Amino acid sequence: MIGTGASAIQFIPEIAERAGHVDVFQRTPPWIQPRPDVPVPARVRETFASSPLAARVVRDALYWLLEARGLGFVVNPKLMAPQEQLARWHIEKQIADPELRKAVTPDYTIGCKRILLSSDYYPALQRPNVDLITDDITGITETAVITADGTAHETDVIIYATGFRVVESVTGLNVAGRDGRKLTPDTLEAYHGITLAGFPNFFMLLGPNTGLGHTSVVFMIESQIHHIMSCLRRLARDEADTIEVREPVLRHYNRELQRRLRRAVWSEGGCRSWYLDADGVNRALWPGFTFEYWARTRRARRSAYTVAP
After folding, report:
1. β-strand 130-133 against 22-25: which pairing, if any?
2. What's the longest Cα–Cα distance across the chain?
3. What does pTM read for this prediction?
4. Do 67 and 290 contact (CB within 8 A), yes or no?
5. Euclidean distance between CA atoms 127 and 267, whole angstroms
């Protein structure tokens, strides 16, 4: 098993129950907090079914509880201390071996990389048939994974969970704009992560800088859909054929966005993650609160767009 990110910590506990032996190769340990999954009692479900208002109150409470975490992400990284304390408590509660505790404890500010949720990953690492390996991988043969200390770790199957490239997931789209303009990593900037200059009538969901680290991204998707519908209504009202964000508006928006990102936790202490591109530019995450994004995207401002026949 190569990798210890969001996917890996979900299937390592499952694999460990079935495989004869599992070697887990870790490059950088993630911060992990307990997964808050609990059964919802029948009485509570009945209350929600009979009282939509009660369900709404609970949902709103959860929303604002998670939204409050954004203070540490985008206002002041020092405010991430309670989140780190929870993760450290989780390690201490689930792992008795001091060497293993040390191996799974990150040395970077929590939030810099994706915070993971799991209550069965640390127990899986302590199974007698599981080994956590932190030495660098230097080679792979037909029968083994070779690490920097010269050890050949015999293997039948290798599972890669080594992350993905966020920017390339967009630039890999086979889309051409006006005059053959292409989506490229060095020019990938979108207004609210939705529209691009030079690409009329082109809209994205979960485009650049709309990911989140503190709450559900579904809220962002819903806001984006509302914004797109507002653009389409503008087209219909003007009986126009195309709508496209203005280049100066796009440039101003992204300058301000990158300025805010430089103060956020994802740039703390030289942190590196898949949130950043090869030049260290964060093109993945939104540097604010979701209610702020919702307010900004509720309506497509006529001054921000060129609407043409």
Report:
1. parallel
2. 69
3. 0.87
4. yes
5. 36
Q: CA-to-CA distance for 281 and 139, rounded, in angstroms?
A: 30
Per-residue pLDDT of the chain (309 residues; tens, 9 = 90+): 999 999 999 999 999 999 999 999 999 999 999 998 889 999 999 999 999 999 999 999 999 999 999 999 989 989 999 999 999 999 999 999 999 999 999 999 999 899 999 999 999 999 999 999 999 999 999 999 999 999 999 999 999 998 777 777 777 788 889 988 888 776 788 999 999 999 999 999 999 999 999 999 999 999 999 999 999 999 999 999 999 999 999 999 999 999 999 889 988 766 788 888 878 888 899 999 999 999 999 999 999 999 998
**Can you give the three-state secondary structure of the chain, one letter per residue?**
CECCCCCHHHHHHHHHCCCCCEEEECCCCCCEECCCCCCCCHHHHHHHHHCHHHHHHHHHHHHHHHHCCHHHHHHCHHHHHHHHHHHHHHHHHHCCCHHHHHHHCCCCCCCCCCCEECCCHHHHHCCCCEEEECCCEEEECCCEEEECCCCEEECCCCCECCCCCHHHHHHCCCCECHHHCECCHHHCCCECCCECCCCCCCCCCCCCCCECCCCCCHHHHHHHHHHHHHHHHHHHHHCCCEEEECHHHHHHHHHHHHHHHCCCHHHHHHCCCCCECCCCCECCECCCCHHHHHHHHCCCCHHHEEEEC
Strand pairing partners for 243? 307
Identity at 304, one-letter amino acid code = A
